[in-house]
Amino acid sequence: MKNTRKITVPALLEKKQEGRKIACLTAYDFALASLLDKAGVDLILVGDSGAMVAAGCKTTLPATMEQMVLYTQSVARGVANALIVADMPFLSYQASQRDAVLNAGRFIKEGGADAVKLEGGRHIVDIVRYLVQCGIPVMGHLGLTPQSVKSFGGYGLRGAGADEAEKIRNDAIALQDAGVFSIVLEKIPADLAEDISRILEIPTIGIGAGPSCDGQILVTHDILGLFEAFTPKFARRYAELAGIITEAVERYCSDVKQGSFPSNKESY
User: Fold this and answer.
1) Which of 85, 139, 150, 205 has its CA 20 to 30 A from that of 183?
2) Which CA distances in Å does 51 have to 48, 155, 250?
3) Are residues 170 and 43 in the same domain?
4) Would residue 219 count as lying in a domain?
């Protein structure tokens, strides 16, 4: 069912309570965000994944505040209904509570976001609590946290061992206690995600975390076949637009070079 009114943080909590799944995707520009909103997506994440799929970086780490605020502004202009969540980039919140609130505030005031997302567990709960006290809704992110890729040594599965699974579980509870309204669970075993989703009162949003989360999120470029560098195991392809776009551009180039575009009909 498509949204007919603005999705809010309380509305997401109601969806969990009523057992209704939450559909989330990423966007970084006006045109794509408009289409996602029109299609009925509940939550649009302006992800730091934009550093990879939109800016061509090898990781999310180079994403800057200026870049992310610009992406968020562009998305906000195209969205009427979906909840807009802005990813806080690497080192925009870790150094101090002051940095965190000033940068998060930019996403709300300048970017038009409804909320922000932070990666990390118990070590950031004081920052989360402070942001929430300042009136800024916060989404958490546990499991494979891409901003920690240097520490993890790659993008492998997290929480497979008993100790790490228990840590993720405890981190989720700590984030809920600090006031997050939802938590992204990325690339963890499905049974662990199911357990966390059962324990928490707030919605869990899975990405590579099995079917038992309260919602799912994927990078839109992955589901549309726009990002060809690699396709994660957990990303289902709903279209292969890279080939369609390439073919269309090839036809355009051919028409221009052969002199068949523009025609008299397409001229003034």
Assistant:
1) 150
2) 6, 16, 27
3) yes
4) yes
Q: Mind telling me the catalytic residues?
A: 186
CB-CB contact of 252 with 266 (8 Å): no
Using only C-alpha atoms, the chain has a radius of gyration, in whole angstroms, of 20
Q: Say how many domains are in the chain.
A: 2
Residues 225 and 255 in one domain: no
225-250 burial code (b ≥16 CB/10 A, e <16): bbbeeeeeeebeeeeeeeeeeeeeee
Residue 7: other Cβ atoms inside 10 A: 21
Strand spans (E) along the chain: 22-26, 43-46, 83-87, 115-117, 138-143, 182-186, 204-207, 215-218
Distance CA(44)–CA(218), nearest Å, equals: 10
Tokens, residue 111: 């970017």
Question: Residue 127's pLDDT is what?
Answer: 97
Q: How far apart are CA 204 and CA 219, in angstroms?
A: 17
Its pTM stands at: 0.95
Give the model's pLDDT for residue 151: 85
CA distances from 126 to 14, 93, 135 (A): 26, 11, 15
